[in-house]
């Protein structure tokens, strides 16, 4: 029989060619070794399915037009005139803060063009329904503009109060812009509520739309994961909360209600948050940034309050590894206590080393994660890291009253990070996120108090009990860990 008439020989040849072609491509992109090996492993084991997955989600392709617009945004952020930031915004008295705060500020300026702004007020909300109702009240007070960006908008329950408030604002002549991720918000975008908003004069825009043609020029897995509301450039909101009523959202997932936190902000920090939303709007619509900034009046924001805050937007083409570097610096600055909450714990090697190193030098390191999460693969991948952390003395607590979705870090009661960023590779490399590095002991104290309420509703993972789990579970977890860099 001829070689080319042998189906097995042809299949083997194609298999080898796919592995070689994609292997060269992966190697030449110089990804992190863990990510590269994960893709090589997947393509070798499943060449046809793995190759298709790699083409769809394996590279951080953002497309030439988005790249051009991102370059324009970056140039504006780094412009010599300071962009939207006047001297009164950035004249921070660093003697008021722990020494690491000024280092974080310099790092953010250098890697992300993100400047700490002086003088903001913070109000932390831990009840989602209360936060949604307060957002609706702020929108009802709007006089000039409402800008919103969310990963998920879910119809029904208290979320509809925000919808009605936006429609009322538009009826008063307020300029309203709503940006919702095309994948996270797909059910909502396909429903009737966007049509109602548009009929009222609200501008509704899907972020990062996907399709067969787009998948060849940009990665479909890149998502807008931010959650931001800006009203009249006087009030802003951000945190982990999607615009969804937890009493009805994803109840079929079997993980309980989602538990979130959101912060209401006034003062200087409103300006960079407003600029982030407008920048995202420009990236999706092509509207000139100057035109958007002028209509929004971002320069009119005034300092108010004692908190100094560094707003760090991150994402492909936007900040490189800047956010990861800042998180590592924050963790490495801990001397006494480091407390973290995240729904999805799939760290890279550098973060594992930072957490183990902190525990090794005597820092009390506590990680709070939900006992149940809505992703089976992520749950198993996450648990494969527990042995490394427990062996170093890190304490892990499993939250038992729902899917703990709050993303927060508090260091020594004086420095904190709060926002939309999960401690996983997707958030750090593939999503467009927003993080607040807050240099304010009062906010850190409130956030640490919230973390303590989570601890009271959690069970501590016993190292001995965990080590005694069945071999089949350990094998499953460690197998899925091999592809954790691409989850």
Descriptive terms for the model:
487 residues; Endonuclease, Chain A; 3 domains; 16-stranded mixed β-sheet; two-stranded parallel ribbon
Short summary:
With 487 residues, the chain is α/β, with parallel strands linked by helices. Helices cover 45% and strands 21% of the residues.
Folded structure, characterized:
The chain has 487 residues and is α/β, with parallel strands linked by helices. It has three domains: 3-57; 64-104 and 113-313, Endonuclease Chain A (Endonuclease, Chain A), CATH 3.30.870; 322-486, Endonuclease, Chain A (2-Layer Sandwich). 45% of the residues lie in helices and 21% in strands. It is built from 21 helices and 20 strands. The strands form three sheets. It has a 16-stranded mixed β-sheet that branches. Strand 16 (407-411) and strand 17 form a beta hairpin. Helix 4 (64-77) packs antiparallel against helix 12 and helix 14 runs parallel beside helix 15. The model has no long low-confidence stretch (mean pLDDT 88).
Span between N and C termini? Answer: 44 Å
Give a count of the beta strands, DSSP E runs of length 2 or more. Answer: 20
- What is the helix fraction of residues, given as a range? 40-55%
CATH superfamily label of the largest domain: Endonuclease Chain A
Global morphology: globular
Helix and strand composition category = alpha/beta
What is the gyration radius calculated from CA atoms? 23 Å
User: What is the name of the CATH topology of the largest domain?
Assistant: Endonuclease, Chain A
